[in-house]
Write a structure and sequence with these properties.
It is a single chain. The protein has a four-stranded antiparallel β-sheet with strand order 1-2-3-4, covered by helices on one side. The longest helix has 13 residues, at about 95-110. A hairpin with a 4-residue loop joins strand 3 (about 45-55) and strand 4 (about 60-65). It is of the alpha+beta class. The chain has one domain (about 5-110). The termini are far apart. It is elongated, with a radius of gyration of 17 Å. It has helices at about 70-80, 90-95, 95-110, and strands at about 5-10, 30-40, 45-55, 60-65.
Length: about 110
């Protein structure tokens, strides 16, 4: 089956952590690579997600870590949010809890 790979650079303004990371990663640019397979149809092109990885640079090496694209997008959303006291705690950066709390708070104000 034919596949395509796309690369993009994402930039975090603050340290961040995703599920499976041992420690928060420093702010800065990161390369994200997504692999998709082509679904064979005659009328239009369609793709199915296979994997997404983020490149973590260490002083002496590079590691490609698999990530959930939705979780990565949520981390980028948190990173762009106003700085709150709990933004830097590990529990605040894991999962959707922080995003859900702040969306609910924002919707209640409306």
């Amino acid at each position: 089956m034919q596949t395509r790979r796309t690369k993009r650079t994402v930039t975090f303004k603050r340290p961040f952590i995703l599920d499976g990371f041992d420690a928060p990663q420093p702010a800065g640019p990161y390369t994200v690579e997504t692999e998709e397979e082509v679904l064979g149809t005659m009328t239009f092109s369609a793709y199915r997600h296979i994997s997404t990885t983020i490149e973590l640079r260490q002083p002496a090496s590079r590691e490609y870590f698999p990530v959930d694209p939705q979780e990565l997008d949520e981390a980028l959303e948190r990173d762009g949010s106003p700085l709150l006291q709990d933004n830097f705690s590990v529990p605040a950066w894991r999962g959707m809890d922080w995003v859900r709390r702040n969306r609910a708070r924002h919707n209640a104000i409306r």
